[in-house]
Amino acid sequence: MTIAELRQEFYASLLGRYPSEEVGSFFTILSEKILNLKRIDLVLRSNNELSENQQQEFKNAVKRLQKFEPIQYITGETEFFSLPFKVNKHTLIPRPETEELVQWILDISQTKDPANLDILDIGTGSGCIAISLAKNLTPAAVSALDISSEALKIAHRNAINNKVAITFEERDILKVSKLPKLYDIIVSNPPYVREMEKKAMHKNVLEYEPAAALFVSNVDPLVFYKAIARLAKHNLKPGGALFFEINEYLSETLSVELKNIGFNAIEIRKDLFGKDRMIKCALHE
């Protein structure tokens, strides 16, 4: 089978489940992973014959895509903030909106000496926030916590691959009574999707991404935010800031909670889709 024939078969197997543009993107991503060929190479070498193993790898990927498994889990990798990251079923797939949160932190850190910065990422998952900050704020001291030992294995591997030093620790933030030191920046992208919102979510998210990293109860959807804010109240340095990625429907409710805990200078920002997605706050002086 040639590359051209494979492409035709690949499209026929997935059209109807995905838009044509997305199928094309899948084919490009898998070709780079399996064949080590860029998009232009696929055109120039369209008559190249594929080995049996290569054909089988594509067939296996198609079967998984037909069940709506995310392409990032199939390849085992993705990109975030122009950096490579390994991902698997124990880690959320990093979103573009979270890149905006990282950029916000970098923007407010421009006037500070990275050598004096202490940063904590709570609920690090793949490590995408902590690693991106460490990469762009060298030599800041960056620490990261997560409840999942399996997620931390991936995060540790990503830190090594991206050549940054991160202090990782397995902790359940809802059971933490005190953080180890004071920080200039505490950031978290905690679970924030309410159970009631599941019906609006895509199958590839619901069936494959780790539920514990996504969902919270309808009864107390801000449980992680309140726990983290209470800890941050005692562990932010003077002039320090607390950042969260947030549920678009709960921004005002969260703002009130943060004020009640003792934070001010509360700023809510929208993401690239125009939805309330990030919040920054500081302590009363």
TrEMBL record:
Residues recorded as binding S-adenosyl-L-methionine, renumbered to this chain, are 123-127, 146, 189
Per its UniProt entry, which superkingdom is the organism in?
Bacteria
SUPFAM superfamilies assigned: S-adenosyl-L-methionine-dependent methyltransferases
Q: Which residues form a coiled coil?
A: none
Q: Which reaction does it catalyse?
A: L-glutaminyl-[peptide chain release factor] + S-adenosyl-L-methionine = N(5)-methyl-L-glutaminyl-[peptide chain release factor] + S-adenosyl-L-homocysteine + H(+)
Question: Could you tell me which InterPro entries the record lists for this protein?
Answer: DNA_methylase_N6_adenine_CS (IPR002052), HemK-like (IPR004556), N5-glutamine_MTase (IPR050320), PrmC_N (IPR040758), RF_methyltr_PrmC (IPR019874), SAM-dependent_MTases_sf (IPR029063), Small_mtfrase_dom (IPR007848)
MF terms (GO), sorted A to Z: nucleic acid binding; peptide chain release factor N(5)-glutamine methyltransferase activity
The residues that the entry says bind substrate are 189-192
The answer on whether this UniProt entry bears the keyword Transferase reads yes
Cross-referenced PANTHER family: HEMK METHYLTRANSFERASE, MTRF1L RELEASE FACTOR GLUTAMINE METHYLTRANSFERASE
Function (record text): Methylates the class 1 translation termination release factors RF1/PrfA and RF2/PrfB on the glutamine residue of the universally conserved GGQ motif.
Q: What is this protein called?
A: Release factor glutamine methyltransferase
Q: Which organism is it from?
A: Constantimarinum furrinae
